[in-house]
Amino acid sequence: MIPTVTSQDMVSAKARRTYENLVQATSAEIAASGSFSAERVAKRAGTSPATFYSYFASKDAALAAAFSSVLDRLVAWIDQTLSIESLLEKSTREFCREFVVQATDFFTRESLVFRCALARLPEYRALRDAYREHESQAFQRYERFIALAQNAGKVRPGDPKQMARALLVLTQGLNNPLALGLGADDPLLRELADALFALLAPSGSGGERISE
Question: Does the pLDDT value for residue 2 go beyond 70?
Fold first, then answer.
């Protein structure tokens, strides 16, 4: 039986597309200029400022939506990267190096959205809620990954919860201007990979440095 598509469904689908286009346009405008306005976002999305404000009560609301979308992509990246299958295919040392390079690449691409959102974080609750929700999602994934990696002998013994907290702090620290836009072979990224390896290094690794 072919499902019936009602006019309400079509309107809802169109509204969803418009919303997603506005969110994407907000992110794109910030990435292009470091700031945004309703007029510039509407133009980029092919609509009007009135339509912008029919979806977002304020610029902060649009920023929160764009920030949440970026954080969704960050969590999806964590899901893809922190795969126990991927870890089993390579050494812990190699895994740490790739993790740091890919994380800084992600933060570099999204740096201006992060900068705008974090600047408004103390003033706008929806931004804080989005940040905390996604931070919790990331922490859950880190804790699960560490527990699985410990069972596989790829990560040292320890309290998975505390190690996950340390990994979360280390990852957030990669979103630092000093680490953004660097080449994969930059000495700073090698040092950061060494720090991650020191956190995770399994017994018998000998404390070797990635940068050596």
Answer: no
